[in-house]
Structure formats: structure tokens, C-alpha cells
Backbone:
């Protein structure tokens, strides 16, 4: 009888303590939720899914699937050494997540910066995105003689009175001009800009009046030619250009700090004139001995000419039954149109590994957001090239797990943070070559990673992606994969390939980047197609730890 009141007293005290602790640590479990904003980003250059749509929310423990999210424990700035990718070289105050992901200071401030910081500012600036374009169409050839066009309803060339000016001296624009004429019924003019022939003078000479210039192609390879930009800004003719397709040709082995300042000054002038970068190409024909390319193709849109009554709508693939009934040509068109559609805005794209085949493009924005303790990366398909794996480990301090059963090598530790396995990815377990292939759930279980999120997973597996990826979806193995990169080997005429894209979309995966590999092109009705498309997906359902 005497013990019972004490027992009740202990129980009450215990409950009070638990409640106090719960209140004190109520914000420990947080995650970042994806939501679609109807009006806020309508005209702001953001798609339904973007970096800005990942917001932090306090939440109760996730009892539905027994997942407990922890606070991000590694908040240190990345300090790769050597800094091949210009992540740590640029002062932090010039890196933002705003309208200019990489800020350009004025000329006086640029002069005060170290040479390598100015160099990095240029190469990072021309490889960041400032505005969203969801639909891209390639006109001309893939390997070189061609350009992308932003085909969003708000920027697509007008079908009524389309005008295209070509001032590109670096390659023959004839194929591009022929394609864009066939696709949009454009009037095309060759107008080589110079100090004596400005854009406004060419507008007058060609009697286009006050008509908008839907597209202007321009290549610049000397510092004197940079003055063409000065003239277009001064006479305000640049305000009449809806899309500017600009190639800058400057060899980093001979370009000095003062020259980079000239380039950055002109790029800032274009930004102030309302032009925003929506895409870029590292022109592979210009790749040098280091990570910096000798030339870049930079794609701008003029914000003031955006047709605001035409809003971006995300492309939704039809049902599986409808896909299976499509004729081959319609199926192929759907496949490529979808793969050249970006649905997620990642502003800072960093090339990890080789610029040529072997490297991959990482969404740096999200690498800054996810929990990096630990940072796990799976790399399928090595073919003796560890450039991506080594660079990923060095740049982001990740643990790399590299897989390839075709190299005839036993499991080994390649470097401090890179492990190689004589194993490939498949939908079932079986012997293959000198090793084996296995589904992702078995691989993760064998490595004791079944409860560890994967920051990045990439696969270049020569068509093994088609049986293995559906198995990953069926077993829910992609739910905690943040970024997923695939080289898709297909001509787009197989219904199951398009159905897989639909299933990935339904699972929350959105394309943020793509690369049309020039090594495996085929002819299309207009332009060319690539049968080995590198496609980069962001998992919008992934709980980014904050």
C-alpha cells in the first residue's frame, strides 16, 4: 500500500521529463518537402520543381515508413585540393542562389582578385543557368554545326513572322538555318556583325523594321570582336533579340587575367540588358588539356520579350496502353522530345571527371543541401576510367563504390575513398564475365548500404539500364537516391523504354540536364538524334536533410 503513491509519483515525473525533452528537441527531425507553386514562380524563370521549391519544415517522426531523418552534420564548405572545378577558388560572396548564381563584381574589384579566382569566375559563370527553359530543340547537327533553341511557349520563334540573324563565323550555319526555316518558317539572314556593321544597321539593311529578332547566332574569338556587344547594348538593339546563341572562343592556356576581365565585363553588360542564360554547351571540339574549355556555347533569352500569356506546362507522358499503341515514328518523337525536356531547375552544373566521355554533370546546388555524413556515390560502368569517381571523391569528399564486371579485375581499393567491385547492375543475380551482375537491392544489402541514402548514382551500362531500372523501381530502391544519371541506349522506338520514363516520372524523378552524345547520331526528319543520350534526373521526392 505504501509503495503505490511513490510509483504514481515516479510515473508523473517521468512523463513531465519526456514532455520537456520532446519540446526542447522538437526541431531535430526535419526534412525538405517538394511542392508545386501555381503563381509565385509563373514568370520568374522557375519550373514547378526547382531548387527554390525545397523548403524546410519541422515535422513529427515519419511513422509511416519508420524513417528517421537527422540534422545535417557536415556543414563545412567543400575544400577540394587541387580545386579542378573552381568550387573553393571563388570567394564565397560571389556564389549565390539568386538571379545570378555566380556574381560578377565591377572591373575594379575584379582587378583586386587573384588571377585564378578571376579565371574561375569566368568558367563558372558561363556554365551556370540563370533562367528556366523547359523545352529545347536541336537544329543543325549534334557534333558541331548546330544550336539549341528554347522552344518554351513564351520564347519559341514566332510562326507568323520569324526572323533569324546569323553572325557566326566559326562554323557553317547553313544546316542550322535550313532546319530552323523548316521547323518555324523563319526568314534567315547572314549578318556578320563588326565595328562598321552593327546589329541595328543590319536590321535596317534587311528591312525587318521593328520586328523582333527571334534568334541571333554570334561567335566571338577576339577581344576586338567583344566591342560588338558594347555596340548592341549602347544602341539598345540587343533588346530586340529574343534568343541570343553565343559562342565565346578563348583559349585558357593564353588568356590572361586582364582578358578574362574584359569577357566578364561584357557578360555582365548582357545580364544588365535583360539577357539570361538558360543553357550552355562545352563544345567538345574545343576541349583542351585541362578542365577549362577553349570555347563555350551560351544560350540566352531576353526576359523583356517573354510572352507572358503563354505559360510553361510540364510534359506528361500518356498512359502505358496509349504508349504501346503509338506508331514507331510518333513513339520516337515522344521519346526524344521528353529526354530534351528539363523539368527541374538546377543553376550550378559542375562537370566532374573528364570533359569528354567519362565525366558527368553534377547538380552542385543539391550537393550543398543533402546530408553528406556520409556521402555515398554508386558508379556503374567504369571501363578502366576512374576520372569521375576520383574527382567526385576529391571534390565532395564522398565514398565512391565503382562497379564493372567487364574489366577482368577482382575487387580492390582504388584509392582512399574509391572501392572497385567486379560486379555489374542487372535485374537478377547471375554470373557475368569474370564477375557477376546483381540487382540494386542485393548490392546495397551486401555492402550494408540498405539504410544509407545515395547522393549520386550513375550508370553507363550499355543497355543494362532497361532491365535493371524497372527492378529498382519495383523494389523501391530509388526512393533514397538523390541524383540519378543514366546513359540511355535506344533509338526511341521501343514502347517499354518510354514506359520506363513514365514510371520514373511517377516516382518523382525530373530531368535537370541532358547531353546528346555526338558519338552515336542518326538522321531525323529535322536535325539529328543521338542513340546514347546522357540524362540527369533529380529525385523530387527525396527527403533532403537540412
Residues:
Amino acid at each position: 500500500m505504501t509503495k503505490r503513491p511513490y510509483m504514481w509519483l515516479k510515473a508523473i515525473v517521468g512523463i513531465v521529463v519526456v514532455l520537456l525533452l520532446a519540446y526542447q528537441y522538437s526541431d531535430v527531425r526535419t526534412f525538405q518537402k517538394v511542392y508545386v507553386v501555381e503563381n509565385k514562380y509563373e514568370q520568374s524563370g522557375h519550373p514547378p520543381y526547382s531548387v527554390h521549391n525545397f523548403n524546410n519544415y519541422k515535422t513529427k517522426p515519419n511513422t509511416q515508413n519508420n524513417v528517421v531523418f537527422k540534422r545535417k552534420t557536415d556543414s563545412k564548405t567543400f575544400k577540394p585540393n587541387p580545386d579542378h572545378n573552381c568550387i573553393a577558388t571563388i570567394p564565397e560572396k560571389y556564389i549565390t542562389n539568386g538571379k545570378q548564381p555566380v556574381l560578377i563584381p565591377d572591373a575594379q574589384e575584379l582587378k583586386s582578385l587573384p588571377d585564378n579566382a578571376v579565371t574561375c569566375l569566368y568558367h563558372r559563370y558561363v556554365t551556370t543557368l540563370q533562367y528556366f527553359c523547359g523545352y529545347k530543340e536541336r537544329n543543325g547537327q549534334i557534333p558541331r554545326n548546330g544550336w539549341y533553341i528554347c522552344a518554351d511557349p513564351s520564347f519559341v520563334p514566332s510562326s507568323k513572322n520569324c526572323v533569324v540573324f546569323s553572325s557566326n563565323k566559326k562554323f557553317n550555319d547553313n544546316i542550322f538555318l535550313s532546319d530552323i526555316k523548316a521547323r518555324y518558317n523563319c526568314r534567315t539572314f547572314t549578318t556578320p556583325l563588326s565595328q562598321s556593321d552593327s546589329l541595328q544597321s543590319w536590321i535596317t539593311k534587311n528591312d525587318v523594321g521593328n520586328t523582333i529578332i527571334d534568334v541571333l547566332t554570334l561567335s566571338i574569338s577576339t577581344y576586338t570582336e567583344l566591342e560588338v556587344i558594347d555596340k548592341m547594348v549602347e544602341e539598345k538593339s540587343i533588346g530586340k533579340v529574343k534568343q541570343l546563341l553565343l559562342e565565346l572562343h578563348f583559349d585558357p592556356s593564353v588568356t590572361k587575367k586582364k582578358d578574362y576581365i574584359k569577357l566578364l565585363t561584357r557578360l555582365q553588360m548582357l545580364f544588365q540588358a535583360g539577357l539570361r542564360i538558360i543553357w550552355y554547351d562545352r563544345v567538345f571540339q574545343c576541349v583542351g588539356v585541362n578542365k577549362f574549355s577553349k570555347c563555350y556555347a551560351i544560350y540566352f533569352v531576353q526576359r523583356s520579350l517573354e510572352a507572358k500569356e503563354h505559360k510553361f506546362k510540364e510534359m506528361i507522358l500518356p498512359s502505358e496502353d496509349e504508349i504501346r499503341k503509338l506508331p514507331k515514328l510518333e513513339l520516337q518523337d515522344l521519346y526524344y522530345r521528353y529526354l530534351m525536356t528539363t523539368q527541374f531547375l538546377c543553376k550550378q552544373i559542375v562537370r566532374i571527371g573528364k570533359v569528354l566521355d567519362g565525366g558527368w554533370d553534377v547538380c552542385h546546388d543539391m550537393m550543398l543541401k543533402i546530408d553528406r555524413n556520409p556521402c555515398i556515390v554508386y558508379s556503374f560502368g567504369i571501363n578502366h576510367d576512374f576520372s569521375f569517381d576520383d574527382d567526385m571523391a576529391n571534390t565532395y569528399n564522398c565514398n565512391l563504390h565503382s562497379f564493372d564486371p567487364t574489366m577482368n579485375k577482382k575487387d580492390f581499393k582504388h584509392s582512399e575513398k574509391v572501392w572497385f567491385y567486379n560486379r555489374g547492375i542487372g535485374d537478377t543475380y547471375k554470373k557475368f564475365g569474370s564477375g557477376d551482375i546483381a540487382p540494386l537491392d542485393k548490392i546495397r544489402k551486401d555492402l550494408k548500404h540498405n539504410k544509407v541514402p545515395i547522393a549520386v548514382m550513375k550508370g553507363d551500362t550499355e543497355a543494362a539500364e532497361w532491365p535493371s531500372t524497372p527492378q529498382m523501381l519495383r523494389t523501391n530502391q530509388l526512393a533514397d537516391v538523390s541524383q540519378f544519371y543514366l546513359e540511355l541506349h535506344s533509338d526511341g522506338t521501343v514502347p517499354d523504354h518510354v514506359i520506363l520514363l513514365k514510371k520514373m516520372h511517377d516516382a518523382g524523378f525530373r530531368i535537370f540536364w541532358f547531353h546528346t552524345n555526338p558519338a552515336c547520331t542518326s538522321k531525323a526528319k529535322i536535325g539529328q538524334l543521338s542513340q546514347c543520350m546522357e540524362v540527369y534526373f533529380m529525385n523530387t521526392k527525396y527527403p533532403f536533410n537540412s
